[in-house]
Automatic annotation (TrEMBL):
This is AAA-like domain-containing protein. Pfam families: AAA_35 (PF14516), HTH_VMAP-M9 (PF26355). InterPro entries: HTH_VMAP-M9, P-loop_NTPase. Residues 1-84 form the vWA-MoxR associated protein N-terminal HTH domain. Transmembrane segments: none annotated.
Length: 464
């Protein structure tokens, strides 16, 4: 019997008896178990632990038992469904008539078996990773920030610095700035510095030539490095001359040049110092030289990646408009829940805000799993700080960053056990704030959210 026919039939029987639809995680387990996969094997193709899959699987077998009026489990459910289908000629006709439905969307099944019900999904819902596409309903606006950025790139020679921890919407904001620039008929070039080869980052001259070449390609112009690169003057002067005497004069409208993941340069101190000094010089040059006024720079970097690196590395570009990515407030969380088709009260939005502190990625991840896994908010709150929860990989990334940082670990231990704000050293405060782990008010620190308190309590404090 085709697994998709079996799944559709199972969903119908469950709904008729319980009024409840199978969700997409139920469907994933159903398909996998139909093929005799173990829970451990299932973990290889999804983001869940076998513990969580067993829990959801147990609920699935109970639902199927209700639908079939017979007790079934992972080993027996297939035979039970096949016996049921054999007693229904329509099921055999359906098996021959329809194609598999891998995304659990409605198919022609209803034409052959009208009482079959589709398993509902939100068609647009995607796993929340990477930037949110322009036009997506799952992007939450920050009107004041966006207006400031749009206004800045409309002014000659402006520079914007967007910073924040990972997964806080920096690249999503950048995408909207670039989209707005294109709507104004500006030229745009966006470079992701994570794509630069390590060998080039180790050599200032190679890196700046790569930089010039990538911008040239982005503008769809011929590459003319040899005409403007002179070892006598050095890399920075050659790079400046290339822009000033070749690239910028070619433009009849402003160029918005975006540099994303600027932190990729931080570990290479010589390259970072030269490159950031160059960018600052260009910003200052625009105040005196009209050719540079057509260049508008947008720099984006994460603050939590290289906490062990020297703190001064970004100081040479502390100019222009600084944008610190904000958290979602309770109203924005409620709005995002509604866009996930959840009928939430403001009280439920407050509960999630308390758990994750309004962290954009953590909020979206929670809402995604509530919808896709049919979780209640109470279940989410219970699972969140555990290793079986879907925040575990995020928290493991943080623990990896803390390896070897004894002073920061000790500071976090103090914060975990303290009911009141704590006074930390300047270095501890600066680094933990850059990592997005604390909030600071009047030089007193508290943990950013309840998730961090519970997880660090389990993983940093000694067990007795």
């Amino acid at each position: 019997m085709d697994v998709e026919v079996a799944l559709t039939l199972a969903n119908t029987l469950v709904f008729q008896k319980t009024g409840q639809d199978l969700n997409t995680l139920h469907a994933f387990i159903f398909r996998s178990a139909w093929l005799n996969q173990t829970y451990e094997e299932m973990t290889q193709t999804c983001r869940y632990s076998d513990t969580h899959l067993k829990k959801v699987g147990s609920a699935l077998w109970e639902l199927l038992s209700s639908g079939l009026d017979a007790e079934v489990n992972k080993k027996t459910f297939r035979a039970a469904i096949e016996r049921y289908a054999q007693s229904r000629p329509e099921a055999l006709d359906l098996q021959d008539a329809i194609a598999p439905i891998p995304m659990l969307r409605r198919t022609d099944a209803s034409a052959h078996f009208p009482e079959l019900l589709p398993i509902p999904v939100i068609e647009e819902l995607q796993f929340p990773e990477g930037p949110v596409e322009v036009g997506s309903p799952f992007y939450i606006d920050f009107p004041n920030i966006e207006f400031c950025c749009y206004y800045a790139i409309s002014k000659p020679g402006r520079l914007i610095r967007i910073k924040g921890t990972r997964h806080t919407g920096k690249t999503s904001l950048l995408a909207r700035i670039l989209n707005h620039a294109r709507e104004q008929n500006y030229k745009t070039v966006a470079l992701n510095l994570q794509l630069v080869d390590r060998k080039m980052l180790q050599d200032v001259d190679q890196f700046l030539q790569w930089f010039c070449a990538r911008v040239t390609r982005g503008l769809q112009l011929p590459l003319k490095l040899e005409d403007h690169w002179d070892g006598v003057f050095g890399s920075k002067i050659s790079c400046k001359d290339y822009f000033e005497n070749y690239l910028l004069p070619q433009l009849d409208q402003p160029l918005v040049l975006a540099l994303d993941e600027l932190e990729a340069v931080f570990p290479y101190s010589e390259t970072a110092d030269h490159f950031f000094a160059l960018l600052r010089a260009w910003y200052e040059e625009a105040k005196m030289n009209s050719i540079w006024q057509n260049l508008r720079l947008v720099l984006v970097h994460s603050t939590d990646v290289y906490i062990a690196e020297k703190m001064h590395q970004s100081s040479s570009i502390n100019v222009g408009l600084p944008i610190q990515m904000p958290e979602f407030n309770v109203g924005q969380i409620e709005t995002l829940a509604q866009r996930h088709e959840l009928d939430w009260t403001i009280a439920q939005a407050k509960q999630l805000a308390q758990l994750v502190g309004g962290h954009p990625y953590l909020v979206r991840l929670a809402l995604y799993h509530i919808v896709q896994d049919n979780l209640s908010l109470d279940e989410l709150l219970r699972l969140a700080p555990t290793e079986a929860g879907f925040y575990n990989s995020h928290m493991q990334e943080i623990l990896a960053l803390l390896e070897g940082q004894t002073d920061l670990v000790n500071a976090l231990k103090t914060l975990v056990v303290s009911a009141d704000p704590v006074s930390l050293t300047l270095t501890e405060t600066t680094k933990l704030k850059r990592m997005g782990l604390i909030k600071v008010n009047d030089n007193q620190a508290t943990l950013r959210c309840e998730l961090y308190r519970q997880y660090f309590s389990d993983h940093l404090l000694p067990k007795f």
